[in-house]
Amino acid sequence: MSLTAILTTINATLTANGSLPSTAALEFGPTIKRDRSVPARVTWVPGRDRFDGPRGAMTRAEQQAFFTANPGKQIPRELHTRWAGVEAHIWAGGAASSDDYSATEALVQAVISAIHQAVYGAYELEPSGWVNPRSSEGNLLGHRYVLNVAFRIPMLEVQTISPANPEDVVITTITQTDQIGPLPPGGSTISSTP
Question: Which of 119, 125, 130, 177 is the most buried (most CB within 10 A)?
Fold first, then answer.
């Protein structure tokens, strides 16, 4: 699963449960001034990744589940684990709001819940915090919370593409000869196989 697919699922959960406006598009990229125009909002900013060594072999039950879900495919080998680091810039209160911390905290809670639903067990929450200076352009529309998350994404071995129908494979046989050098006149060969 790609990072964009994970974030799209999380965004869909947030709009479905009413935490974000139903028209909220997935905001993926740097937090620039236009991104802070109307709360409630979550902007996902890619950060640093880290990598772990490969995971151990699949259990027999995991193998059977893979074959059931992917008939005719081979089990890909996991080379490494990518922990994709992402900052979620979250704010929900407005400039006129007397307590924008509470609204933003509720949205932080909803984001963590949506992450858990989307990638149960395949994420880590990392040190996070508030961006507090209200005089900066970043906080004129309320306090912003930056939630740091790392998503576990397996890096799989690239497999060669096999034909959809094995009957489409044509095997060509070539007769092996013991002859060395150019063919004699007439194009005949001498073979030691009967």
Answer: 119
